Amino acid sequence: MGTINFGESMKCIKGLSFSTGNEMAFDPAIKNLPIPGRAVLPLTSFFGKMTPLVAAGDSVQAGQIVAKGPDKLCPPLLASVTGQISAIQPWPTPDGDESLSLVIDSIEEDGVGAEDAALVSDGDLKDMIRRIRGSGIREVEPSPWPIAARLAQPGSFPAGLIPPESDLGQPIDCLIINGMDTQPGLWMRKAAIRTRGEEILESIPLLTRLCGASRIVFAVPKGHVLSDGFVQGLRSHSVELVYCPTMYPLALAPVLVPFLTGKELPRATMDTRSVGTVVIDVITALKVLEAIRYSKPALDVLVQITAPASGLDTLVSVKEGTLLEDILKELPPLSHKTAKVICGGPFLGETLYQLNVPVTQETASIILQSEHEVTRYSSLACVSCGYCVRHCPMKLLPNELSKLCEYGKFDVAERMDLYSCIECGICAYVCPVKRPMVQFMRFGKRELELERKQL
Amino acid sequence: MKKPAFYVSIPPHLHSGDSLQKMHLETILALVPAMFAGWFYFGWPALMIILISAVTALLTEYLWQKAIGRDVQINDGSALITGILLGFLMSAGSPWWTAIIGAFVAILVGKQLFGGLGSHPFNSALVGWTFLSLSYKDLLANFPTPDPHFLLAPGEMLSDPALATFKGGGVGEIIDVPWKDLFLGNVPGEIGTVCVLAILLGGAFLLYRRRITWHIPLSFIASAWIFAFIFWQIDPDTYAPPTFHILTGWIFLGAFFLAPEKGTCPVTTPGMILYGIGCGVITMIIRIWGSYVEGVAFAILLMNAATPLLDRIKPRALGRVKEIA
């Protein structure tokens, strides 16, 4: 915990200070895994259920659109491998749930070859937006709008697609390029800055042109050593370089945007466009660059696989839809028995109950915990020690909220700003009683939703 | 049924490793200097009182939880802290059985009848002490003269606790007591309250370990000092100097150990500061105009009652209010 003075309206931030450890400790080399024999593409996304455009038995090419979203805003689903649809059936998903999925048996053949990776001209704004939409980019962090709609300045996005009540028609003042990893222990974005700095620099004028923002901020964690060339490149694009405290959950948009711009996001939706700001992380920025410059669809997924007990911590690049068990076969065998599989990071991730789960673009991290690393929650009463209140980045009273949700007083919890909770999990992390805080918050929100539906 | 292959849970999947045991163990460690001071000045009877009180507290909690069929949780250490603190609030000359009664009431009435740890609105050690002081006032008022084991000469300036002397005889009686004696605890008084130095050591440890924050201790002591200072400025012949006030009695123990007891104090920054100020001001009001000699206990109990109200004063949550669709 700590405070830092910054800006005018955002006097201090609260959260969890963490050490990034030795800056050179991680190995930024990416292990490229071969095309899997089978890829499974769940027909769900943040934006709703997707409708398949193919049937079992159809042949598909890598990069071909195989499903469309519930509305035209939603990016289409692209086949990540060339092959044949063997089935459309329920399959476990990386969020620990299950959904109808496309199962593709791949054929060893490189569909998207080198000739496709040729440089294409940028074209006008509408052209660029169309290419981003078509490339099927999806992001790790949930956001109310897909990246193409978020990045588009007014006028460049097909007007018919924009929901009239949304804030997407507003001009964009500030573009935040997020070089900070969302959670302690993840270093994928830091690695990207180190290894693909040139390309990130290349993407900045594109992003600036797309969103038309006058202020461009590049946020990196304090202590991260940037090369002189990179810093000069940022300067030449008149980008504000901000070294942010290494504090979880500062890298998440609902905390990062107020920290950098002084503007608060509306609760519940946490829509950055409503305050004229776009947040894009460096990995997505690279995908956008590839989509515009090379018309390259986003078929590869970068995943950090961590198994602390076995000393495994590596980045792998796989085709979307590769099953986790197939990935693990390609890695050195673990020296411990896996007791818990976490998909999506130590603080925000969901647990998987089996290994035949596909890795999707929303997946950033897979953690394999051994038996003794597994945390256990307790059912004891809150002792009101106030540690969660000290650390809550949204300035809530998690102790009160957890008690209110526990005892079914959901309406009071709503008045106590339950919807400002971003479920970062810090309250549960610091709780000496080990209460399942996030579960209480989710329970409360869910019950309120059900109540609202009944009305 | 087949045993599932992996654990499934909601996030987060990491924990700080903190626990109630660690939290309470550190508090007990912080109490050790004051315990040592109690032995240093008042000898083995002081430790005896603390021991009796602590054992009774643990036993009461154990038997009660057994009796009502709850999981026995005496190993979380909270009953031990209550027992030790109650011992601190008693004189080394008190009869041994008063410690038993006090600790029994502290745990049963002060804590378990409300539902146990986290549910009790009042500081349980103070509930026990209040019961004792209302029932056996004269028995508890037997204060032995401090007899330091080494280094210091016995403090013979006072035969009664400094506050009682002041209450009985006015400023003239206490004006010559050296502040060094008050700070080191070389005066008659309750076992754990006399030595400000020892309490400060423990308090500093708790602050360093972030078990408590500075808000309550600082606002408590500062507001008591300022309040006393105002009246001392008005009439130094009637009112005692402010530094005398904060160095005597229970103010430091109250500020670092009794007032910030988890569950009975507010958790928001404005709430904690108002709580501390309330404790300080009420203490001084009782000391100056009340019929009781020491006001800390009742000040903290009164502010405990105000805690739910003070917790309403919270910082505005981040996130603009927008109709939820």
Mean pLDDT of chain A: 87
Q: Give the strand line-up of the largest sheet of chain A.
A: 2-18-17-21-19-20
Beta fraction of chain A? 15-25%
Number of strands of chain B: 0
Q: What is the element layout, followed by pairings?
A:
The complex is a heterodimer of chains A (455) and B (325).
Chain A: E1 16-17, E2 30-32, E3 38-42, E4 44-45, E5 48-49, E6 51-52, E7 59-60, E8 65-68, E9 77-78, E10 83-92, E11 98-106, H1 125-134, H2 147-151, E12 174-178, H3 188-195, H4 197-211, E13 215-221, H5 228-236, E14 240-244, E15 247-248, H6 253-261, E16 277-281, H7 282-294, E17 300-307, E18 312-319, H8 324-330, E19 338-343, E20 350-352, E21 365-370, H9 387-391, H10 398-406, H11 410-415, H12 426-430, H13 437-454
Parallel strand pairs in A: 2-18, 12-13, 12-16, 13-14, 17-21
Antiparallel strand pairs in A: 1-15, 3-11, 4-5, 6-8, 7-10, 8-9, 10-11, 17-18, 19-20, 19-21
Helix pairs in contact in A: 4-7, 10-13
Chain B: H1 20-42, H2 44-67, H3 78-88, H4 96-108, H5 124-135, H6 137-140, H7 162-169, H8 171-174, H9 179-184, H10 196-208, H11 215-234, H12 242-247, H13 251-258, H14 269-289, H15 296-310
Helix pairs in contact in B: 1-2, 1-3, 1-10, 2-3, 2-4, 3-4, 3-5, 4-5, 5-15, 10-13, 11-13, 11-14, 14-15
Could you explain how this protein is built, in words?
The complex is a heterodimer of chains A (455) and B (325). With 455 residues, chain A is α/β, with parallel strands linked by helices. Chain A folds into four domains: 206 residues, Rossmann fold; 82 residues, Beta Barrel (OB fold (Dihydrolipoamide Acetyltransferase, E2P)); 74 residues, Roll (Ubiquitin-like (UB roll)), CATH 3.10.20; 68 residues, no CATH class. Chain B has 15 helices and no strands. The two termini of chain B are 42 Å apart. The radius of gyration of chain B is 21 Å and the shape is globular. Classes of the chains: A alpha/beta (455), B mainly alpha (325). At the A-B interface, helix 6, strand 19, strand 20, helix 9 and helix 12 of A face helix 1 of B.
